[in-house]
Design goal:
single chain; mainly alpha; Formate dehydrogenase/DMSO reductase fold; flat
């Protein structure tokens, strides 16, 4: 794969797996509405389709694992419109397994020169969790406007997952800025530019997500959930940008 394509493939695969993980966890909790689960499943399905489209020149097994993810996820999405909850959850977990295999194959085929295949795979997993929880949390925030009595627990759980994953990725990004500064250069090769980029895609999203987590109150809510949703828009945008840039850094240096 061309380096740019491999970075796009890693990002779309992580997006699909992360969104699916967040959706299946919410589905398992049984504290969200069917409409939200359908939209979240379609969001993950779009990422899986894009990832599969990018496997043309992938390593052996990548195309098959991406196709398995896509088909299992398609089945999970279709069953969201039925009452077959146990069957759809089985398909959801099967799709997650296929996605995990795909990320492992990608890490083995194109490991970071600095990290090796194991740490490349772990970084991909953390990126998937950060992407999925932040995006699906942002989507879930809108449902509280239509269903005010909806429990805030799923939203808090997604925020917690995003914070933990972002903290892990911050440690990796800090190591790159300190030990491999040349790999993190996308513009001017200056310390100010590197540290500004580091803060923008790691520390700032963590702070914003923590603020959103604080706003995830049960009662009295007031405008707290609306504030959380607005903050999660910013987090999701920053995490998406950070995933694209981070995969280019990890796979390139």
């Amino acid at each position: 794969m061309h380096p740019l394509i491999s970075s796009l493939y890693a990002s779309t695969l992580q997006f699909a797996v992360g969104c699916l993980l967040a959706t299946v966890v919410c589905d398992q909790l049984r504290e969200v509405t069917p409409g939200f689960l359908r939209l979240a499943a379609v969001t993950a399905l779009s990422g899986a389709w894009l990832a599969w489209m990018l496997t043309t020149n992938g390593a052996p097994g990548e195309g098959a694992s991406a196709l398995a993810l896509l088909l299992f996820l398609l089945g999970y999405t279709v069953l969201q419109f039925s009452g077959l909850r146990r069957a759809r959850l089985a398909l959801g977990w099967a799709a997650l397994a296929a996605g995990a295999v795909g990320m492992a194959l990608a890490a083995g085929a194109r490991p970071s020169p600095s990290l090796g295949p194991v740490w490349t795979g772990l970084a991909a997993g953390a990126s998937a969790v950060a992407l999925g929880t932040s995006v699906i949390a942002m989507v879930l925030g809108h449902w509280y406007l239509m269903t005010p009595r909806l429990s805030a627990r799923p939203l808090r759980l997604l925020c917690d997952g995003a914070i933990i994953a972002l903290v892990a990725l911050t440690g990796l990004a800090l190591w790159y800025v300190v030990e491999r500064p040349a790999a993190t250069t996308f513009g001017p090769d200056t310390a100010w530019f590197r540290w500004s980029g580091f803060l923008a895609v790691t520390v700032v999203p963590i702070g914003i997500t923590i603020a959103a987590r604080v706003c995830c109150q049960e009662w009295p809510r007031g405008r707290a959930i609306q504030a959380a949703t607005g903050l999660l828009y910013i987090t999701a945008a920053m995490v998406l940008a950070g995933a694209l840039a981070g995969n280019m850094v990890v796979l390139g240096g």
